[in-house]
Write a structure and sequence with these properties.
- The complex is a heterodimer of chains A (421) and B (307).
- Chain A is α/β, with parallel strands linked by helices.
- Chain A folds into two domains: 26-143 and 310-376, D-Maltodextrin-Binding Protein, domain 2; 146-308 and 378-419, Periplasmic binding protein-like II (D-Maltodextrin-Binding Protein, domain 2), CATH 3.40.190.
- Chain A contains 19 helices and 13 strands.
- In chain A, helix 2 links the parallel strand 1 and strand 2 (59-65).
- Chain B is an all-alpha fold.
- Chain B has one domain (71-306): Orthogonal Bundle (MetI-like fold), CATH 1.10.3720.
- Helix content of chain B is 76%, strand content 0%.
- Chain B contains twelve helices and no strands.
- Chain B is flat.
- The chains are: A alpha/beta (421), B mainly alpha (307).
- The A-B interface holds A 72-73, 76-77, 79-80, 82, 98-99, 101-104, 187-188, 190, 242-248, 252, 255-256, 384-386, 389-390, 393, 396-397, 399-400, 402 and B 54-57, 140-142, 159, 161-166, 169, 249, 252-255, 266, 269-274.
Chain lengths: 421, 307
């Protein structure tokens, strides 16, 4: 009896020890950095992590949430220390390429090319997260930047959505005369303002001008880019922005529109959600929020289908455990992509998820993004990081009136030449 | 007796040796830390500053002293340098005199003097980021103090932009620096005041001086060493101003409130030019070093004079 008990005890201990050893050996931690500080958005990402951890008990996902600008600063220093997080937010483009060149990202091409997952996401969107044929992450959102406007204010003043730049200028003057802030811009953050200049360059110079400048057959000092600065200056001279716009943030900008104090806002597809969460009533404009594409510039070479925009996605750090790819696939599953689409937070990239779109504005954005022949990722992410910073600084000088359109274009071109690989 | 004498002489030098080894024993660890975390990085930064390197991967792209040439040709750096010196000048002209006057007013014990010392010192305890964030809220044009309170007192302030106007942003931030640090200097000077023996003050009163003469002719000269300490800390601190600027707009708009350290962070780290950032760090280091040497020289010179 004693011997049996002893053997049983030994057996149990060995089994437990064996199990513990297995778990300890297989336990992986995934560090995940994202930017969605709003309580409900955070909760949704957390739920995805919890659901995944429930299905994969050996995986622990540690989430770090950072505010947008804080994230950009922190990720820069973390990359320079050579220790990237396992899964983190990215907008693709030149910034991502720089990390890839330095060998800081995991190459997941074999999980993408020719696989079911790879085919489930729109090719154009997925391409934003590739570089020299290799894939480093995946998008979950790829939309377009456009002008969000307050339909009630427009109706009251008898203004129709703008098709051309001169119509926009006329509209701005009318709104200003009525004592309402025509345009909200968080130029303290610099990237919201740079949308204006980039879109003007897209409308005036089109695909050809950008490709010429990028490939050095032309330059960023060419006429379309200087013209873009001139048109921006024309807008700035009307004083259409809120007080202290040079020190305001994107959140301030969203609050102004959400509270009905500003009539227009040039922003991406994530705008309505932020506007609602920043508004005092926590609901924003609701049905009064409309979306129109950026107007055409008379005489410009750009096509009406050209789109400037971008999205959101996650890329994978070089030290990430293989389960990270599985988790990324889970985040970008049809179910989860449709969930976020249905809430109006994103323009979905998974094929079939657009059926979940309910908001007419979001549907319009999804259509515009899919029809675009020339899809330009915003310059501050598309160009190498150093050049992106200079573009933002240069455009801020145009908003502040401290440099001329030629000087701003020169600044950008000099930086591009100095940083081109 | 003779034996004892030789004994004590022998013991003295061995005690000295023992003291020395004990001292070295305690010092060796901090010395290692200091070398590893302060001295070595200076040399490392000097090495990196000779490269045009983006900070990712191994170091590449030797360019010699080109970075230093670029620094002094960049108008943004020159603005930053100017701003640093402006902080020094304004601190010496405004902040330190405020601290001094308050120290003289509440330095001596009276009912409530401790209370005043505490509240004046409070801003110093806040972290720079918190102080900057709170003041940014106060300066907010939509819901800050301006539109709610200040315009009732000073109507001209209605469209005044504290942080959004490149002409104003530096001075708006300087007010916060002034508010935050005058308490520190005040406390330093109060400590200095308390080193002045009461007999001197009593004797002066007996001689019939009024308060102004007392302060100007007697207390101030006696307070000189303390004032010099305040000046030293103020200048070194001014040269390294970063967090308060970063919390209140990161030196923008259009680099109007840029300082050398925010310049380093932006143009070094954020633009992925670690070599360039290192060269800026070396420039800041050299400026501080030169200032330190000149300052110590002039102090010892003065001490020798007043003998």
């Amino acid at each position: 009896m004693k011997l049996v008990k002893l053997c049983l005890a030994a057996f149990i201990i060995c089994t437990l020890g064996f199990l513990v050893r297995i778990n300890a050996a297989d336990q992986v931690t995934i560090s995940w950095w994202h930017l969605d500080t709003q309580t409900d958005y955070q909760a949704e990402w957390q739920k995805m992590a919890d659901d995944f951890m429930a299905k994969h008990p050996n995986v622990k996902i540690e989430i770090t949430v950072l505010e947008n600008e804080a994230f950009k600063s922190k990720i820069a220093t973390v990359m320079q220390s050579g220790n990237p997080p396992d899964l983190f937010r990215s907008w693709g483009g030149g910034v991502m390429n720089e990390y890839a060149d330095a060998g800081l990202l995991k190459d997941i091409t074999k999980d993408v090319v020719g696989t079911k997952w790879g085919k489930s996401i729109g090719k154009g969107a997925f391409g934003v997260y590739s570089y020299h044929g290799k894939y480093y992450g995946a998008p979950y959102d790829m939309g377009a930047v456009g002008i969000w406007y307050n339909k009630a204010i427009f109706k009251k003043l008898g203004i129709k959505p703008f098709r051309t730049w001169s119509q926009l200028i006329a509209g701005v003057k009318k709104i200003k005369a009525a004592g309402i802030i025509p345009i909200a811009v968080g130029e303290g953050d610099k990237w919201p303002g740079h949308f204006w200049w980039v879109y003007l360059a897209v409308r005036i110079g089109g695909k050809e001008a950008f490709n010429a400048a990028y490939s050095r057959k032309g330059s960023f000092k060419d006429a379309p880019f200087v013209q873009a600065g001139k048109k921006l200056k024309e807008l700035v001279s009307l004083n259409p922005f809120e007080d202290s716009f040079l020190s305001q943030t994107w959140n301030d900008e969203a609050a102004l529109v959400g509270n009905g104090l500003a009539a227009m806002d040039l922003m991406g597809q994530w705008a309505p959600y932020t506007m609602a969460s920043e508004a005092t009533n926590k609901k924003g404009l609701g049905d009064d929020l409309g979306w129109m594409p950026f107007p055409l510039v008379e005489g410009g070479a750009g096509k009406p289908t050209d789109v400037m925009g971008g999205g959101n996605g996650y890329i994978i750090g070089k030290n990430a455990p293989p389960e990270t790819v599985e988790f990324l696939k889970y985040i970008t599953s049809l179910k989860n992509n449709s969930l976020l689409a249905g809430e109006g937070r994103i323009t979905p990239v998974v094929i079939g998820a657009d059926k979940a779109l309910k908001d007419p504005n979001q549907i319009a954005i999804a259509k515009a993004a899919s029809k675009a022949d020339y899809y330009q990722l915003y310059y501050d992410q598309y160009l190498p990081p150093a050049v992106g910073e200079v573009v933002k600084d240069a455009v801020q000088t145009l908003f502040a009136g401290t440099k001329s359109p030629q000087e701003a274009a020169q600044m950008i071109d000099d930086s591009f030449v100095a940083n081109k690989k | 007796m003779r034996a004892k004498k030789t004994d004590s002489q022998y013991t003295l030098s061995s005690r000295k040796k023992k003291n020395f080894t004990t001292a070295m024993g305690f010092l060796i660890v901090p010395l290692l830390f200091y070398t590893f975390f302060v001295i070595a990085p200076v040399f490392q930064a000097a090495y990196y500053s000779l490269f045009n390197w983006n900070g990712l991967g191994p170091i590449t792209n030797f360019i010699g002293f080109k970075n230093f040439v670029t620094i002094f040709k960049d108008s943004v750096f020159l603005t930053a340098l100017k701003n640093n010196f402006l902080i020094i000048v304004l601190s010496l002209l405004l902040q330190l005199p405020t601290a001094l006057i308050l120290a003289l007013a509440i330095g001596r014990r009276f009912k409530g003097s401790t209370f005043f010392r505490s509240i004046f010192f409070l801003p110093f305890i806040l972290s720079e980021i918190i102080a900057g964030t709170v003041w940014t809220f106060m300066y907010n044009p939509q819901f800050g103090l301006q539109n709610t309170t200040l315009v009732n007192l000073i109507p001209a302030l209605k469209n005044f932009s504290f942080l959004g106007d490149p002409k104003h942003v530096f001075y708006s931030i300087f007010i916060v620096i002034w508010w935050k640090y005058f308490g520190l200097h005040m406390v330093i000077m109060i400590a200095g005041l308390q080193n002045i023996p009461d007999e001197v003050v009593e004797a002066a009163y007996v001689d019939g001086v009024n308060n102004f003469q007392l302060n100007w002719h007697i207390i101030l000269p006696l307070l000189k060493p303390t004032i010099l300490i305040s000046v030293f800390f103020s200048i070194i601190g001014s040269l390294q101003t970063f967090a308060i600027i970063w919390a209140m707009g990161r030196g923008d708009p259009v680099h109007a409130a840029e300082t050398m350290v925010t310049y380093l962070y932006k143009f070094g780290f954020l633009r992925f030019s670690l070599g360039y950032g290192s060269s800026v760090a070396i420039v800041i280091f050299l400026i501080c070093l030169v200032f330190n040497i000149l300052y110590q020289r002039s102090i010892t010179g003065q001490e020798q004079q007043s003998g």
